[in-house]
Write a structure and sequence with these properties.
The chain is about 30% helix and about 15% strand. The chain is of the alpha/beta class. The protein has 2 domains: about 110 residues, no CATH class; about 350 residues, Aldolase class I (TIM Barrel), CATH 3.20.20.70. Helix 5 links the parallel strand 9 and strand 10. The protein is globular and about 80 Å long.
Length: about 500
Amino acid sequence: MVLESSDIRSEISDTEENRKRCMCPSCPSYPHKCSGEILFCGIKASKCDIDAKSCICNTCPIYFEHNLNGLYYCNQVETGETKILMRKKKSDEDKKLYKTIVDIREMSLNQESTVVSMGSLKKLPFSLEDIHFIPAQINKIPLNRDEFVNLEFTLGRQARKPLTFSSPIMISGMSFGAVSKNVKLVIKEASEQLEIGYNSGEGGLIDEEKIPGDYQIIQYSTGRYGVNEEILKQASAVEIRFGQGAYPGKGSYLPPEKMTLEISSIRELEPGEGSYSPAHHQDMTNPQDIQDKVDWLHNITDGAPIGAKIGCGDVEKDVMILADSGVDFITLDGFGGGTGATDLYVRDNVGIPLLSALPQAHKTLENLGLKEKISIIASGGLRTSADFAKCLSLGADAVYIGTAALIAINCQQYRVCHTGLCPTGITTQNPQLIRQIDLDESVKRLMNFIKVLNEEIANLTRIVGKNNIKKLDKADLVSMDKDISRICGIKWLNGEYIK
């Protein structure tokens, strides 16, 4: 079928004369269940499913007057960024299958991979929801609501300058460019007030962030955007970013549509130029390089905690190398973690879930005798207090949240982050759209959300009979699924461990 732009519909007037000349009702494929619909080439496709029997569009006078070339306009809708007309999705058709068809069409037209936003929508065979807490009642006694629970988390317990936060909940790295300046300001203000950790992200620091924050973790990424020795000297902690859950093993990308003069200046790029980060650090290609870099960062920060962030994959070997390098913490970002923009084929097919990576990392550090020295930060698709408390029980010392924090601020999951057209002001650089974020109100909402999460984590800790999140462990959990029991090393429903 000949491809046509959806713009052709704007050229055909919906007049009484054209309606009288329209031949649609005489077509063998006309949707009689939606009787009364007409002039599909000029208005829109039918609301009904179309049974393609034959088409008489190319016999209609309107067709010739407007030099049309396609067929079955009753079934044609605008698709993709190219806005080419294509048959619409059938009512009983799988959404993912239809999306794949559209993506193939788009790639054939623009010779580019499909770019997507947010975390993968792929449904995994298991999740944290398949794990429950074992309540204390008689064998162990639960705590009352008014009994204190210690939520504090210390990063770099053996560093010269350890960093203590009021909560195990931290805000993950989101670069300026991927998110708007207002989002960065909200996260900084809320985190500093709550005394929780927050990550700068890889895009460099806005002016307001260059004033040292007591709880800010500077991200040292492959692109090294806007991060120099002067900034590192002021850092409370540094996270070397090797990868992330949405695209492990691949460099990051900020589309040209989101590159303002300010962002370009921070990243030292030309205005309007897309920003590509390398897949790996050019000066860290073997274990000795990594150890040398960790030593250098420890020295330049005068002993601040230094860590590494990896997308979950070859967990055991990666953790062993990082542990040997002298890091103070390791961030595990699992499959399903969010992003502002990446390729669909990577997001949905690379890496492993946090649920399988976290037990591996914990066991590896225990075997090395380093679990008390090196902290684990869990990340990737975590949304609720139950998710966080389960991760703490499985061996994490803290958790990162990204998308959940953005939703608390104003995100409504339009999933158009990569376009720069986010209606809520979260992932856009459009001044009109950014105004949708009221700074004071957004700070209040983010703080409210985290305060509720803190109280819920405390309550879950009380329910299992403990008064400190550091005491949470695998014995507090039970699995609804045999495979998860085996992967995580926790009891199955029958009270036994599955080997």
